[in-house]
Amino acid sequence: MQFSSPVKNFSRWVAIAAISMTVASCASRPTIETDYDHTIDFSQYKTYAFFNPMGIENPNYSSIYGSIFRDAISKEMESRGYVKSDNPDLLINVSGRLQEKTQVTTTSDPYMAGGYYGYRRGIYGTWGGYGYGTTTHVSNYTEGTVNVDIVDRVRKRMVWEGVAVGRVNEKRTGEETRSRIHSVIQEMFAVYPFRARK
Q: pTM of the predicted model, to two decimals?
């Protein structure tokens, strides 16, 4: 989707970078999925680094969100024995995108049960497929998707991916955003099944 100005475009990408998301309805967390290349021997890897710039970064703007992601991911990688290196086995990239979504919900209207405002109740009915008796609500929202890719640097091949999807909330404070990123990355890596080679 194209935005009307570079400033607006950047602010929307900041929203992605922040992973300021809540899943549809009342859920408090984004939906997270992970997968990896089952043909790869992960025991061969022991070092890592980050793409520069990463997909969420732009050389013309501040990389504050990139720094938060780096800190959060580094914490997870190093807790698994990986060491940051200038000549890494693995390169890590973070990217994101926004999509405008429409949610349509239809509910029964108690004021219209049994007929239009109830006045037909017990007297006569309507034909099949008659549209009254329900209320339809349409809401528009922005869905954000954030990808964390781990790439075999020599093979230039992605070997692991984590994906977070949810509604974007652009009203979070800076500290809430930092905490949110660390929380989502921690949840994402909770199912990362490998440790660095000793």
A: 0.69
